[in-house]
Amino acid sequence: MSSFPKSTSQQIVDKYFVITKDYFEAINNLKSIQNKSDISNILFVGLNCIHRVFEYVLYKTKNIDTAVGMAQQTYFYYLEYIEQIQSAELLFQIKQSEAILFVYKKTVFDLFEGTKKESTMTTLDNIMTLDDDFIHINNREWTRFFPRIKKLYEVLFYWNQSQWKIEDRMFICMNYFRRYLHCLDKLEVSLMYLDYIQKHYELDFEKYKELLDAIIEKTEKIRRNRSSSITEEEKTDWLLIKLYKERDTFEDKLQGPATELVTWLLSEV
Q1: Is 116 left (phi over 0), alpha (psi -120 to 50) or beta?
Q2: For 36-50, what is each residue's pLDDT tens digit?
């Protein structure tokens, strides 16, 4: 999956999947928010908090178990935050920055407070931004690994489908997320196309599952991974050709079998 040890990357994504699955299940058990119109935003904000804490603690400690433990604490405290603002009838006003600050103060800030000479505000600022000056990563792949995971969960769960229920995204998590995580370094082009489709077309849940199946089945069969050698210029050219110059062909294939669409989109990869 990357140039740092394969066993390490596999451990990380396997643990990451379990944390995400447990978080979704915990949210699903919080019955009081099941019918909230802002449930997609609630889910996304919490997942973003978990991702940031897991990434930060792993960078700081180089210990997967410590990162897992802190990530688990994160969603416990996030649920506490949700219940607090719900009791004050403020759930529709949930803000990502406030949620992140709440869980950071409860988790990573307490862990590292007093171990650095930085001021309180500097420490919090660095945690919030993951400032490169504060987090030194020598291996270039480490600096790409977590942004790829972030991009994956930002796209895969189709957050702008606000009408979807928790069960729908739990299905995606249980049936696709782990497989996609294990193909992380082969998915850049596929996620580019998937992101475009989500922003410009509306797919029902069954069609979306068909598309996810086609993408991951195609990706898992790729033996020669050239993702790292694909330039931004190439990706832009493919996007312009497939989705603009050949729009009629694209839209015809979007209405047809997903396997044919994916094979056509990824013909250059």
Answers
A1: beta
A2: 667 888 899 999 999
From 177, 212, 233, give the residue that closes a domain: 177
- Distance CA(115)–CA(186), nearest Å, equals 38
| DSSP assignment letter at 229 | G
Burial class (CB in 10 A: 0-12, 13-18, 19+), 154: middle
Prediction pTM value: 0.85
Residue ranges making up the domain that contains 196: 183-269
Give the pLDDT of residue 121. Answer: 46
CB 81 within 8 A of CB 103: yes
Q: What is the pLDDT of residues 191-234, one digit of tens each?
A: 999 999 999 999 999 999 999 999 999 999 987 666 666 888 99
Query: Read out DSSP for 90-109?
Result: -GGG--HHHHHHHHHHHTHH
Asked if residue 210 lies in contact with residue 38, where contact means CB atoms within 8 angstroms, the answer is no
Residues 42 and 115 in one domain: yes
**Residue type present at position 231:** T
Shared domain check, 216 and 88: no
Domain count, the chain: 2
Same domain, 56 and 173: yes
Same domain membership, residue 96 and residue 220: no
CA distance 228 to 188: 9
Q: Among 142, 177, 212, where does a domain finish?
A: 177
